[in-house]
Amino acid sequence: MTDLKDHAQNAKTWPFAEARSLLKRVGGKTPEKGFVLFETGYGPSGLPHIGTFGEVARTSMVRHAFSLLSDLPSKLITFSDDMDGLRKVPDNIPNPDMMAEHLGMPLTTIPDPFGTHESFGHHNNARLKAFLDDFGFDYEFLSSTECYKSGRFDEALLGVLERYDAVINVILPTLGEERRATYSPFLPVCPKTGQVLQAPVVERDTDAGTIVYEDEDGAKTEVPVTGGHCKLQWKADWAMRWTALDVDYEMSGKDLIDSVKLSGKICRILGGEPPVGFTYELFLDENGEKISKSRGNGLMVEEWLRYAPPESLSLFMYQKPKTAKRLFFDIIPRTVDDYLSHLSSLPQQDDAKKLDNPAWHIHQGAPPHEEAYLSFSILLNLASVCHTEDKAVLWHFISRYRSDASLEAAPILDRLLDYAINYYRDFVKPAKNYRKATDDEKAALEDLLSVLGGIADDADAETIQTEVYEVGKRHPFPDLKAWFKALYEILLGQSQGPRMGSFIALYGLQETRNLIKRAIAGEDLAH
Question: Can you give the pTM of this predicted structure?
Fold first, then answer.
């Protein structure tokens, strides 16, 4: 561990760079609250999505890097802004008509459209916590509703009231003329309806800790700013939270750059110090548009986990966090294979290289290892050519190819088979489009059939790959890429595919020869 600590001082990966910035902020000393506080925020107006997970995963990576650089205690808080008023009905939930009747109400007072929890906010919070727990994140969950109503934010809220003019003078220049005329950082919760109101504040009483707001009918109502009777507008709320909790580190998306600056100014007005921050790029859907919880146009956490292990999702978050990336189903297989490659290379690396390996960050420095390693793309193609969704059939081929592979010795591989079958069933199988071979391609296939007939049954993948290359060179293809593309389209029914030597070694020489014979005969390989 001492060696790792030494190497951590010079590690170039972004989690270590962030951890060093944080260590500089705290001055190498434990804060008065007794720990260094990492925070992630969650807006539960829509169902939790991968962007939410990404923020927790990335922050956890920085926290782990920090733990290697320093012995200071730390804590991660996942904060849910569940007292926010519902502004619009999300597109991807049941009972939208019922939800429409509760617009403006705090999320934790709106009935759960799914019928499983006491409120919509509680339901979405539970969805978030369930996943974070399944993944094993070390965090503490905080509810905005509970913090406001319990009095935890009272002192900071009174600070906003006391410095009211200074706070709004930071915010007003960023608003349009009409909004400026009625803006207040305080959103009173109506005593009669329970709605979170955007109402003009006409009086303030610092001594009493109250505001007076004017309702739509002209009536004036006085409410305390404490005890959950008011909520802050979100930029002021963010700054107040940083101050009240003394947050040391929080990352956020590129779309919030201006909000981070503004909230930082308010935090200083309240006597706090803004946290160290990190700006990450946003995820895009298949059309290149920003993903949204309420629109549901990205991948749900559960959807990714149907087709790939959670560690692959962590890798997606780790890679190039400052680069916008498409987040859709077709990136899953490549991400899984990248994860497996990083994982398999880790045992051979020295300590300095380990700290640069994404798998080290994903597994908090303690990654698993097993000898039986097969790429996800190979497993997908095995399921595809076998036309099977039966894991036992796939294990038959694998155990023959890899004598060290078994359910007991290769639990990672066994788990990958479940994901591969799901992905094959939902994406590969429906998109398969076999084509017939041309005369020139038939000649090349006959040549390949003859060559494979002369290869020993125990030949390794590299030997087979070399022979497949040589066959392609002997025939009138524009290049070898065209030869392999023809093999994929004719034998596998797809435009892209695996390294053929590896695939043939896994599927079996005799089975491959039978497949080629059927293709030459013009049979329908889809069945």
Answer: 0.88
